[in-house]
Amino acid sequence: MAAYDVRFKLNTGTEIPALGLGTWQSAPGEVAKAVAHAIKVGYRHIDTALCYGNENEVGQGIKEAIDSGVVKREELFVTTKLWCSYHARVEEGLETSLKNLGLDYVDLYLMHWPLAMNPNGNHPVFPKLPDGSRDIIYSHSHVTTWKDMEKLVGSGKAKAIGVSNYSVQYLEELLPQSTIIPAANQIENHPSLPQQEIVDYCNAKGIHITAYSPLGSTGSPLFTAEPIVAVAKKRGVTPATVLLSWHIARGSSVLAKSVTPARIEANRADLIHLDAEDMATIKKYSDGLAASKSFQRFVFPPFGVTFGFPDKE
Ligand SMILES: NC(=O)C1=CN([C@@H]2O[C@H](COP(=O)(O)OP(=O)(O)OC[C@H]3O[C@@H](n4cnc5c(N)ncnc54)[C@H](OP(=O)(O)O)[C@@H]3O)[C@@H](O)[C@H]2O)C=CC1
Ligand SMILES: O=C[C@H](O)[C@@H](O)[C@@H](O)[C@H](O)C(=O)O
Questions:
Q1: Signal peptide position in this chain (predicted)?
Q2: Are 213 and 264 in contact (CB under 8 A)?
Q3: Which residue of 37, 50, 111, 233 lies most exposed, with the fewest beta carbons within 10 A?
């Protein structure tokens, strides 16, 4: 099977396509085109979030692809996320996203970060206190939010629910109190931040891992890491291909953001099956970073909370 055709089974029984199109920071005027193009060239998995402010355009791209006959809705896997200022009004969060997207349901609805922000603050998405810090409601537990998310599943409007940015510590708080085990945990993941402890924990619990910022996010800084370049040379592919293919070899799905048609195409078409030797080369690199405590985390918003991430303790 071609690497771009790989799918992974979720604990709901549904399959998630290994490669998804990321849309964070995809600019207005660009993202609808990127989504439509991605679907046209074979992507079946699209990732967005309420806080990206682009669900509307993502929905337009999906509609364009469906209207042109390229794909049927049921062939797509669409993920969106509950934003922090909606933790105390989960159903409203989902309804808002569905309306923005122009969809009747999403395939996966994730709690974006395990932290509630003030729904009545000075901004609907990024409320802040007078001192400039984020307006967080510490008394609202992520477990309460999850219990409200569990209620969504029966509605059919979220086919599966999951979490994002969860550490082992937070999952250990959540799982004993859950009725539904999260279908997925979407986390930052790449050879410079392998998060092996959370990947192993989720694998053991039947929670699928989806990797975000696989290229190191904006400007793709991971392309120059020497072992990635070495594997790329050996396999005759680009560093981007190695970084994306690494997740598929680990059993994780991976989100690659691009608004550039040629990159959208290559990120899918060039995917390969990395072999044991390739994986060992990359593991050696990750192990070296672990030993020198020099993991690189590119996405760490200023919540003022470590989320139990070992590299931030
Ligand atoms: N749950 C969460 O908290 C988070 C979720 N995410 C999700 O994961 C997705 C991916 O992560 P993201 O942080 O966006 O970053 P990525 O690691 O996907 O990197 C995106 C950057 O790489 C560039 N790029 C893409 N493909 C190539 C290529 N083949 N060659 C050279 N450059 C390339 C893009 O440029 P260009 O677009 O100009 O082509 C963009 O600058 C997000 O878009 C979002 O959907 C991301 C962060 C946090
Ligand atoms: O999904 C991507 C990221 O998590 C992003 O949503 C956050 O970093 C957000 O911009 C924030 O500032 O909290």
A1: none
A2: no
A3: 233
- Distance from Cα 114 to the centre of ligand 2, integer Å: 12
141 inside domain: yes
User: Is residue 277 exposed (0-12), middle (13-18) or buried (19+ Cβ within 10 Å)?
Assistant: exposed
CA–CA distance, 102 with 96 (Å, rounded to integer): 10
Q: Is 170 a catalytic residue?
A: no
Q: What is the mean pLDDT of each run of 10 residues along the chain (313 residues)?
A: 96 98 95 98 98 98 98 98 98 98 98 98 98 98 98 97 98 98 98 97 98 89 91 97 98 97 98 98 96 95 96 90
| Ligand found nearest the CA of 232 | 1
- Straight-line distance from the first to the last Cα atom of the chain, in angstroms, rounded to the nearest whole number: 41
**Cβ < 6 Å from ligand 2: which residues?**
24, 49, 51, 299, 301
Structure token pair of residue 164: 């994002």
> How far away, in angstroms, is 222 Cα from ligand 2 center?
20
Report the number of distinct structural domains present in the chain: 1
Instruction: Confirm whether 273 is domain-assigned.
Output: no
Q: Give the residue whose CA is nearest to atom 39 of ligand 1.
A: 258
Q: What is the CATH number of the domain that holds 145?
A: 3.20.20.100
Q: ipTM of this model? A: 0.99
